Structure prediction request, 887 residues.
Amino acid sequence: MKIAVPLALTLALAGIAWAGIQLLGLYGLFGIVVPYVALASFVVGFVYRLVKWGRSAVPFRIPTTCGQQKSLPWVKQNKIENPASTAGVVGRMLMEVLFFRSLFRNTKTEKHGANLGVGSAKWLWFGALVFHWSMLVVVLRHLRFFLEPVPAPLAALEGFDSLLQVGLPVLYITDLTIVCALTFLFVRRVVLPRVRSLSLPNDFFPLFLLLGVVAAGVAMRYFVRVDVEAVKEMAMGLVTLHPVVVDGVGTIFYVHLFLACALVAYFPWSKLMHAGGVVLSPTRNMANNSRSVRHVNPWSRDLPVHTYAEYEEEFKDKMVKVGLPLDAE
Amino acid sequence: MAKLLKQDELLDFSLDATSADWRHAPVEFKEGMYCHGAKPKNLEVVGLPNGHDWSPTDDDWHLPEGWKDIVLNGMEDLMKKYRSFKLYMDVCVRCGACADKCHFYQGTGDPRNMPVARAELLRSVYRRYFTTSGKMFGELVGARDLTEDVIKEWYYYFFQCTECRRCSVFCPYGIDQAEITIMGRELLNLLGLNTEWIAGPVANCYMKGNHVGLEPQTIMSNIEFLMDDLEDITGKRITPSFNRKGAEILFVVPSGDLYAEPGTFTFMGYMLLFEQLGLDYTLSTYASEGGNFGFFTTNDMAKRLNAKMYAEAKRLGVKWILGGECGHMWRLVNQYMDTWNGPADFLEVPVSPITGTRFENAASTKMVHITEFTADLLYHDKIKVDPSRNDHLVVTYHDSCNTSRAMGLLEEPRYIINKVCNHFHEMPEETIREKTLCCGSGSGLNAGENMELRMRGGFPRANAVRHVRDKYGVNVLANICALDRASFPALMDYWVPGTKVMGVHELVGNALVLDGEKERTLDLRLEELPKKPAPASTGDAGVEAAAGADAEGVGSDA
Prediction:
């Protein structure tokens, strides 16, 4: 169920795009309306989620400290893993966002009879890193459809990505790596009993969507050629707010576009928002300096306490007996 | 206390065959794995709501009228108050990195003890009532209805989490199961559901100043006994002051150090140190608890118990506060106290009267950790120590969860241990510092009736101790946490018998050379110090040395 439903949903989405173009010829809908709607959903949703999180208070400084604190001058502080300053926090966050620092710590706990052991488990980190970096490069590469002229850095990136060229058309390294990484992430969810037991349909759906987008993209790049010039014209139309539908762009392009739109529209309403959430995570984005700089809780309020006077009142006879000084006369 | 299983029975589980149906399996209360329910009187004392008579094994928990709304409104309220809660309900991708990092999972194999799964117990309810997809698609997106069985499951599993934060170290988004457990317990407390082992100490602490309910005269007589022992050991009479106005420093310890072995030995270590320094300090019978079981009920309760420290510091007119060895006490001092009950503008930035070191890292809370204080003394050679007095001890060091993952106090205790002991060996890297493994009894789980749970939760830690015992002959598990001192003896007896549990300042007390003390023949446990080959007589030891019992020689008072 948890695999079948999201898979069916993804295939259905692809089918809708195919049917909409191939059978109904709804070019305007799929080439213009859907992309704008998806973009709107993405922007509105992203902002909405961030604002919603942002409106929750951060009452306490609760960084998870993963290294030596700043204390005595001769004790070497770990400024990244246990930051005491904003610069340290930025460093820590960059390590998390760019290199998945915490995931890099991953290990595998192994139980052999009466003993526990710790094994290396860097594959998840590696697979996740490969996927996210590939995704970034792929997205950046796509910017050439939306920019005229194509900026030099983008062209350079593309050149770099196609270093492994074997024949024609140009083979992008990231096309290869993103497929491998997504496949890995999918397979581990199915094969590892623990992860399988944790996974929900909403964990598989984004994987299938991504695989679908990539598959359609790869297909039209290497197998079912589409008119790239026409695609660019459509893309430029979208960004310049003069959308056009250009004839002769294959159906496969619309499948690719529609799945991508589904992904973009779905993004902010799903677990994919971890992308925005990670930078707000209080255990990672706060400095461990709450002993030297007071942190204020916005909803703090006075609460009843059992005062010393009440305590003394209750125990005064006993206190006098053992010679404890009293405040009250 | 329930009868404990044999080790091999207890370890008869696998970490690789995780059943896929944990989301649907009904919760089963296994004896030895849960604590008794809180008695209403202890909740009423502190004004916690809906106290009632119930037992976890009852079919009907007699939840208060409208309990569902209470919980859901509570969730909504907590999500507004805590970004951590709201965010951690949303951003988990179930990658599984945390799954096998939890000591309770490692010791039970119970899938619901995977941190992510424990979080899902709450997340599933969140989805059902607070997300559109959950409202529309229900189970398909991992949402489920809030039922009495869910409440029971929360009770069982949120008290199988020690809020140790180890999962949070490995999570790519820093999702902290401790935060989720804390919220889960807040919600349970709205329904009057807590454990008696937590509620009792909270009530005690509120009324009497400490968890065990020691009254002022009892605290003083307990300490008197300890000072008698110290007199036997050193020949010096130490007379600490209590509730003394105008002292420079208020010294606050976890109350476990006041009455129960082996914490009392740690306390004796503090006293010897302060005596040697001539420190101008006082103890308080009112603020006689550094620990805070209130933190295991609700945030408000924790704040109310914590308030005593600053209030007493202000009343006594001290300049700053020094804190003893305790884990969650220090999480709270480091991350909560100033926010709760500050600003402590009636205190001064702590300065060591011995070295002149200004503790800038405590400039706002005005509270210094005893290992920071002592490490500073040793660094500046202000105390004389004879590490050979600890030569019969082969020491390893356990980082307590809170001081490592909610503070980063890693090097100070090690620096001290290396100065006062000659035989120190670390446990494997994956089990210390920020990756330290919990004692299995933290966050109020150190009761008697849940002993099997404690032995299971502490198994990974014990396993690492056993490793260094076999490799280096380690016989001492040093620590800076009162809960460790309370819980490790039972854990060691079960898994690694013969291992002693010692606070770092017990080791300090053993090694510390006092002015005018007699030749030591006993350690702080009143056990004979090992005999050493007598050095060529230095003349000053006289009759005692001639008796040949131990002839320390090194650093004698001459």
Notes: The first strand of chain A starts at residue 107 and ends at 112. Chain A has one domain: 4-304. Chain A has a mean pLDDT of 94.
